[in-house]
Amino acid sequence: MTDRLRSLQDLQTLHRELKLRQRAEEERREREAAAARLREHEARIFEHSVGAVVPLPASNRVILNRGRPEPEPRQRELDEQMAWQQALSDDFDVDSLLETDESLSFRRPEISAESVRKLRRGHWSLQAQIDLHGLRRDQAREALGQFIHDSARRGLRCVRVVHGKGNGSPGKEPVLKARVRRWLVQKQEVLAFVQARASDGGSGALMVLLNAT
Length: 213
Prior knowledge:
By secondary structure, the protein is α+β, with helices and mostly antiparallel strands. It folds into two domains: about 1-55; about 95-210, Ribosomal Protein S8, Chain: A, domain 1 (2-Layer Sandwich). Helices cover about 45% and strands about 10% of the residues. It has a five-stranded mixed sheet with strand order 1-4-5-3-2, sandwiched between helices. Helix 4 (about 135-155) links the parallel strand 2 and strand 3 (about 160). It is rod-shaped and about 130 Å long. The N and C termini lie far apart (about 115 Å).
């Protein structure tokens, strides 16, 4: 009798467990169905808001292919620096191009004498300068060429080139003065130059008018 009661109790317990599992499964299904209905409702709201959506044809799609970055043109930069140095010749005959005043000014044919007078009077404000003191000839030539090139590319109009008065040179003669004038005449960016006013360096410097690009 005892064994039969125990078996009956076990069956009842098993039956209750099965019912609990069945109820849990039904609740899970109801939650999933409710979530599906909510997603469908939200999708309909989105479609109603944006209207009909038509997929783009494959032919109208752009496939972006990120290429490798271009290498830095280091050799071209070196070639340009070499061109600056080679373009400025020490043998260039500049005397015929200079005005016959005491400051030996220079202007290209398209530049008026009035522009030279304005340059001498400080009409254009000084925007940059380079000091060639202490540089050897080749160093000064390369530094000046690059300075003029960079200044013109930056859109500068008026710059100053300090070459020195030669007070510390043998014979008190300025070593770079004549060379700087010769080099500047050969630079296409240079439209004109005059000796600086006393307040700007006097005979030890030049005020240069550039063709800013």
